[in-house]
Specification:
The protein is of the alpha+beta class and 357 residues long. The chain contains 9 helices and 17 strands. The chain has helices at residues 75-82, 138-145, 166-171, 202-208, 227-251, 261-276, 290-296, 315-323, 326-332; strands spanning 17-24, 28-31, 44-46, 87-90, 96-101, 106-113, 116-124, 150-155, 158-163, 174-178, 181-188, 193-200, 212-216, 258-259, 303-310, 339-345, 348-355. α5 (227-251) packs parallel to α8. The longest helix is centred in the last third of the chain and has 25 residues, at 227-251. Residues 71-211 form the CAP-associated domain. Residues 33-58 have a biased composition (Basic and acidic residues).
Length: 357
């Protein structure tokens, strides 16, 4: 694969629910944090948004980084610049992720739909996202982009306004930088620094709806995916969670984890069980937890841990959510783990960590 020339970027983070659980072979130590997604149907209001400050053309933020210039570019231009992607992952929103990563310290994925780039997510080193950069402090980025709790947009006779909570403003602010370009900045609340960046056009933002929204007009309908398409979507998100977890571990000088197929089977089973039986917990309705699930598959280990999440719009958002929760962060950055298995089913995410005996 050709050398990856990644660009510095900014970040977005979806809402979600999550839980961290860790234990060793002899003693169970629970560390629970259950937080449901802060975006619900009641938060989508069809009305006339209140007036909010409009950005004048002369106030448009000057974006020097190459990252922002990819929205609207063709797939052939993308391939000409980067070569063939590491892989292509189908998303649940109609576009396909072209993933480029060295699986250590560089990661970027371009969402391509109808031969055009419609969104970009990136993190890691050597990224061109001026005037921001990964690792930059919250205050510095805020000075450049002026974060606001309300972000509005208009399309012909339709008007939309996203309303961010205090927590969202601190961990995943949204900024409109041009008529059809928005940026979500994902911040690490523990280091108060920029962790990753997502750039997206209006259509993708309205499909994902990661914040409370008031609108006048119509909202686009999400694509209806077949069972076979969902298998492909879930599989792609599993690999994204795995890759991004290792990128983050590398950021904090932790050892890289190996993919474990058998552990991934356990993780997928739990995600599917939560989705089909409409619950969100580390323990299934019959009372079984990770320890029992691993035992059922005859998996031998000396320590294991689990993170779960629900209703995040995609894998990058889920990973950034875990990073910002103390228990989940601890599981992601534990030194002792050697293996990782990830299972995703319809916006339910499970990652199981393992230390072999």
């Amino acid at each position: 694969m050709r050398g990856i020339k990644l660009f510095v970027l900014l970040l977005l983070l979806g809402g979600g629910a999550y839980y961290a659980y860790s234990f060793d072979a002899s003693e169970v130590n629970d560390s629970e944090t259950d937080t449901k997604d802060d975006l619900s149907l009641e938060q989508v209001q069809r009305d006339s948004p209140k007036d909010s400050p409009k950005q004048n053309e002369e106030d448009t933020i000057k974006l020097n980084g190459q990252l922002y210039k990819w929205i609207g570019k063709t797939a052939s231009t993308l391939k000409g610049e980067f070569g063939a992607p590491t892989r292509k992952d189908l998303s649940s929103y109609g576009y396909t992720w072209w993933v480029y990563t060295n699986q250590e310290n560089q990661y970027i994925q371009f969402g391509v739909e109808n031969d055009k780039v419609v969104t970009v997510y990136a993190t890691g080193e050597n990224l061109s996202a001026e005037p921001a950069q990964i690792g930059q402090g919250y205050g510095e980025v805020n000075e450049q982009f002026d974060f606001n709790e309300k972000v509005s947009l208009s399309e012909e006779f339709q008007t939309y306004e996203f309303k961010l909570t205090k927590d969202q403003l601190e961990t995943r602010p949204l900024v409109k930088v041009k008529d059809d370009i928005f940026i979500q900045f994902y911040f690490d609340r523990f280091t108060e620094s920029l962790s990753s960046i997502r750039v997206l056009n209006t259509s993708v933002l309205l499909l994902q709806r990661p914040y409370k929204i008031s609108y006048r007009g119509e909202l686009p309908e999400k694509p209806t995916n077949s069972k076979e398409e969902w298998k492909e979507i879930d599989s792609g998100m599993e690999q994204q969670v795995f890759d991004l977890t290792n990128i983050i571990r590398n950021r904090f000088d932790k050892s890289m984890l190996d993919w474990n197929d058998r552990v991934a089977e356990v993780a997928f089973g739990h995600s599917k069980d939560m989705a089909l039986n409409n619950y969100f917990s580390h323990f299934s309705p019959d009372g079984n937890g990770l320890k029992e699930r691993l035992k059922e598959k005859s998996i031998i280990y000396s320590a294991a841990g689990e993170n779960i999440a629900a209703q995040y719009p995609d894998a990058p958002a889920a990973v950034e959510g875990w990073l910002n929760s103390e228990g989940h962060r601890k599981a992601m950055l534990t030194d002792d783990y050697s293996d990782l298995g990830v299972g995703v089913y319809r916006y339910y995410y499970t990652q199981n960590f393992l230390k072999k005996q």
